[in-house]
Write a sequence for this structure.
């Protein structure tokens, strides 16, 4: 029987590294981050980071992937609710997410780094944008079936308008608190015909 070489990877170290990488990225962007800073903040050696990721960009992309966990998804037990009821139930969690300063800062950093580090935008796109577009499209298709929005509405354009409105609001100088985020999201969803 052959044994694996070396010690097994420590999942706690993985989590600490990814959390540290996200914090360092949010604070200083790609240029302001280093493997040494990430390792120090995570309480591990640089070699521990390099055993898992071969570059600073790779660990930052992995950290961005894990950040999506803070954005709520619709629980399966809510799937059969009418669209307007579902939206009302999801709004508080969405408002808390977009009022979170770290999310706002992360998105601003990703957009700022997109020209010189397109892999970070690609990671954000695949892990945030694509799944949410798919979920939003399903919600809009249900709204069409329920007669809440027009049967001939261009769903892709509607998604772009909704997402664009929220992203535009996220990068404005004055951050939203939860109450402001709730009011803004209600307005966006109302304009889209979902409330």
């Amino acid at each position: 029987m052959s044994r694996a070489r070396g010690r097994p990877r420590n999942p706690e170290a993985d989590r600490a590294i990814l959390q540290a990488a996200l914090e360092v990225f949010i604070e200083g962007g790609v240029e302001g981050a280093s493997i040494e800073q990430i390792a120090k903040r995570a309480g591990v050696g640089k070699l521990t980071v390099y055993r898992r990721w071969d570059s600073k960009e790779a660990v930052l992309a992995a950290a961005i992937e894990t950040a999506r966990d803070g954005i709520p998804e619709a629980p399966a037990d809510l799937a059969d609710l009418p669209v307007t009821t579902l939206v009302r139930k999801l709004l508080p969690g969405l408002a808390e997410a977009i009022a979170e300063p770290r999310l706002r800062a992360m998105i601003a950093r990703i957009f700022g780094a997109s020209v010189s580090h397109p892999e970070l935008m690609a990671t954000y796109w695949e892990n945030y944008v694509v799944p949410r577009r798919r979920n939003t499209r399903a919600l809009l298709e249900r709204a069409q079936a329920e007669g809440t929005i027009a049967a001939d509405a261009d769903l892709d354009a509607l998604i772009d308008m909704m997402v664009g409105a929220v992203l535009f609001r996220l990068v404005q100088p004055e951050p939203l608190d939860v109450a402001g985020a709730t009011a803004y999201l209600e307005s966006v969803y109302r304009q889209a015909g979902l409330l």
Remarks:
- The domain at 71-191 is CATH 1.10.357.10 (Tetracycline Repressor; domain 2).
